[in-house]
Write a structure and sequence with these properties.
The chain has a single domain (about 10-125), classed as 3-Layer(aba) Sandwich (Rossmann fold). The chain is about 40% helix and about 20% strand. The chain has about 140 residues and is α/β, with parallel strands linked by helices. The chain has helices at about 20-35, 50, 55-60, 70-75, 85-100, 110-120, and strands spanning about 10-15, 40-50, 65-70, 105, 125. The radius of gyration is 15 Å and the shape is globular.
Amino acid sequence: MSSPKFFKEPHTICIIQITRMGDIVQTIQAAECLKREYPDVKLIFIGRKTFASPLEDQVKLIFSKIFYIDLLHLFDSNQVKCLDDARGKLKGIINLLEKEKITVNINLSFSNSSSYLNTLIPAKFKIGIYKNNFDQ
């Protein structure tokens, strides 16, 4: 089955799920249903490395690309000399995501971290919490 006629071209959907393993399992199940209904849609997954990497085999079955946010590595004092270093690492991830031409970001993690991440990732549409220029 191909995408419905209202999809003029294949879309890319980025799902942000940086919470616990159980939430990631439910996200995989929902994404599997979405992919079954709209097989032309490209799905990207963003998860926290500590929770998502043990489920990588299942995630790879549904998602075209996986991006891990490794908070321990991002702020590791042995590798990050200042906040600018951490910001540079995060900007590298955002730059990679920008190249994906994401149509929709779906933030399934309701936290400050995920809302800022959803804010930083460029997308035509954003679902779930994100911040505006006034930090609202």
